[in-house]
Write a sequence for this structure.
């Protein structure tokens, strides 16, 4: 069974600085998707970035980028030029490409942005 | 394009009661998944519906059941509520079952007393 681990329950970053959130996962599959979701106090899960396992190039979306290390089963999220609006819970998620296609989520990292 | 909507926003039920939560998927999306998110935890997969058929189920008892309608909206029913059922229930829809991204609704906060 697949598992997703986020070892940082909480992180803080100064506004305009850079922060990296860690995520590791375990799977025996070769083809899968990885995601980072943001959940602000409003509760709605918002997709931040996604990575397809068969792509070696790390995904980038504006200030958000990932460091995908397939062999190490590591998928970290880097937020550059942090803004107050980035404060939220961040969840790493794994999704298989076979069977039910369900998402498996980590326990989340709470990001605080300090003014 | 209308996003995923859920109703109600909040509700309070008593242990032993039954509850129905509703989800309208994003326009054109044929797959709906339901998740339970306990306080301080990540979402846990309950089940998924694809074209009105259950397409997979997580580790939840049979008192958690669902439906998907021809317009792809969906219901989550929970019978014999227990205190541990108190959680945020999230619905997510996707256009493609295999490679489509899931888009989440705002959730329903269920409190069981």
């Amino acid at each position: 069974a697949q598992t997703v681990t986020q070892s940082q329950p909480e992180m803080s970053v100064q506004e305009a600085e850079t922060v990296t959130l860690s995520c590791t996962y375990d799977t025996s599959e070769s083809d899968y998707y990885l995601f980072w979701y943001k959940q602000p106090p409003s509760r709605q899960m918002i997709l931040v970035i996604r990575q397809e396992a068969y792509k070696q190039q790390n995904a980038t979306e504006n200030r958000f980028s990932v460091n995908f290390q397939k062999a190490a089963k590591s998928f970290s999220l880097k937020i550059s030029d942090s803004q107050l609006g980035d404060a939220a819970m961040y969840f790493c998620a794994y999704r298989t490409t076979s069977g039910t296609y369900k998402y498996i989520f980590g326990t989340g990292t709470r990001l605080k942005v300090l003014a | 394009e209308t996003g995923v909507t859920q109703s109600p926003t909040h509700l309070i039920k008593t242990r032993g009661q039954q509850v129905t939560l509703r989800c309208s998927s994003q326009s054109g999306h044929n797959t709906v998944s339901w998740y339970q998110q306990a306080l301080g935890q990540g979402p846990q997969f309950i089940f998924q519906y694809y074209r009105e058929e259950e397409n997979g189920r997580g580790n939840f008892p049979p008192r958690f059941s669902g439906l998907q309608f021809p317009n792809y909206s969906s219901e989550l029913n929970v019978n014999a509520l227990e205190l541990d059922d108190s959680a945020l229930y999230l619905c997510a829809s996707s256009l493609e079952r295999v490679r489509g991204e899931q888009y989440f609704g705002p959730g329903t906060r269920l409190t069981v007393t």
